[in-house]
Amino acid sequence: MLPRSLILCSFLAYALGGTVTEGGSCSASDNHLEPASHKFLTDCDDKTFCSGTTNGTCVPRRCRADEFPYGFQPGDVLPSMCSQGSYCPDDGSQCVPLIAAGQPCEMNRDNQCAPGPDHIQLSSNQNFNGSICLQSTCMYANATLGQRCLLDNTTYIDQGPDGQQYANTVLRDDCHSPYLFCDEGSRQCFPAKVFGSPCLADRECLAYTCGTQDLCTDLPGTPIKVAPWQYAITVLCITAAMVAICVMLFLIHKRQRLRQYREIRDYYHEQLRSGFSIP
């Protein structure tokens, strides 16, 4: 059961947050993350941001972090995307340079962190160019096997269509993914588990998928890998089937020819007997 105070805060945030349109007064000091869903909230609506900490005004956003930003309708003029080497903050105020490792970043915004010198080797779908934002701090996802690791535990709470609250806990770490994961108990990097190994979460598996039976499995839509012995058996079966069909066709054709031969022979015999019987 979720705390009632948290549910009430979530409801109030959705009901009251972000209602001031362009030109309205606002305060950037009111910018915060909603405690349940961790959504960025401000006095301004989704198309604008607050220009000042005090006596601010909601002005149109100057950048966007997503290809299709929330709150815009078809036909609206969208803010521009930031160029390489910069990012758009949550409030959409303006593009700023990427953040160096060790500096603060906005929650779970890996794309705000600058890549490291070995970002090609560290890059995976669980970080951004080998960098990751954990506990609102940029760092490299380069913790190796057996090293101490940092684990970021975040619970997201949202309201479903039936009005019931749903919680989803996400664990993220700075181990070299997808080959390693941070063990929650020892806080050390361990090798990612292969197909069929017992698991508790997706991040423990090499394919980042922990199935319903708590076993590591492949991602949905992953092509099936056929073993060489399966290829060999398939070829043998196809060859045997082709040979069997050829033999059957040969035998059937032979029987048909034999039947025709007997019919022709009986016909000539009948004709010969008829000729001898004529006076």
Overview of the molecule:
- With 279 residues, the chain is of the alpha+beta class.
- It folds into three domains: 1-72 and 79-93, no CATH class; 98-191, no CATH class; 228-263.
- Helices cover 24% and strands 18% of the residues.
- It is built from three helices and 13 strands; from the N terminus they run αβββββββαββββββα.
- The chain has helices spanning 4-16, 119-122, 228-277; strands spanning 25-26, 32-33, 40-41, 48-50, 56-60, 86-87, 96-97, 131-134, 137-140, 151-159, 165-173, 180-182, 189-191.
- The strands form six sheets. Strands 1-5-4 form a three-stranded antiparallel β-sheet, with no helix packed on it. Strands 2-3 form a two-stranded antiparallel sheet. It has a two-stranded antiparallel ribbon with strand order 6-7.
- Strand 10 and strand 11 form a beta hairpin.
- The chain crosses the membrane at residues 229-252.
- Keywords: Membrane, Signal, Transmembrane, Transmembrane helix.
- Residues 1-17 form the signal peptide.
Q: How is the topology of this model organized?
A:
Blueprint (H helix, E strand, L loop, with lengths): L3 H13 L8 E2 L5 E2 L6 E2 L6 E3 L5 E5 L25 E2 L8 E2 L21 H4 L8 E4 L2 E4 L10 E9 L5 E9 L6 E3 L6 E3 L36 H50 L2
Antiparallel strand pairs: 1-5, 2-3, 4-5, 6-7, 8-9, 10-11, 12-13
